[in-house]
Amino acid sequence: METLKGEHIYLRALEPEDLNFLFSIENDEYLWELSNTQTPYSRYILEQYLENSHRDIYEVKQLRLVISNYQHKAIGLIDLFDFDFKNSHAGVGILVQELEDRSKGYGKEALQLVIDYSFNHLNLHQLYCNITEDNQASINLFTNQGFQKVGVKKDWIYTNKTYKNEYLFQLINN
């Protein structure tokens, strides 16, 4: 699909060959705060997830895409979640796995592709995201793409024996 191709990266569906990539992300405790994960995932569970990843966004309310560079290396994931057809909105989350792949514009390009896809193909009215107050890179990424901070969830995330605030950002398609 041409709409999911950018200048430096493209977005694609999950494939069975992504098992090790997905396993490394889902079992990285450093990333658990981003995904509200508290336990590791087995390869078996992830294999089942991959087997069902072809299901339609209207059925499962989620779309997970792999961010790949043009050397076909998987560098991250971008998700639409809590897809609500009736109210025409969805959440969006993004992760570029390796530090050396961050700050190169891949996340920005992936986010712009998903915004365009969401508004032009899924006909969504708005996207939202939740970002902890100390995740400045994500705050910058989303605000630079037009998302506006519309709320604060006080003491929302408990991590490392402390509570963090979480910001709610929205992008409304006018």
UniProtKB/TrEMBL annotation:
User: Which GO terms fall under molecular function for this chain's record?
Assistant: acyltransferase activity, transferring groups other than amino-acyl groups
| Domain N-acetyltransferase positions | 9-170
State one Pfam family annotation.
Acetyltransf_3
Coiled coil, from the record: none
Against SUPFAM superfamilies, the record matches this protein to:
Acyl-CoA N-acyltransferases (Nat)
Under the heading InterPro entries, the entry gives: Acyl_CoA_acyltransferase, GNAT_dom
| Name under which the protein is recorded | GNAT family N-acetyltransferase
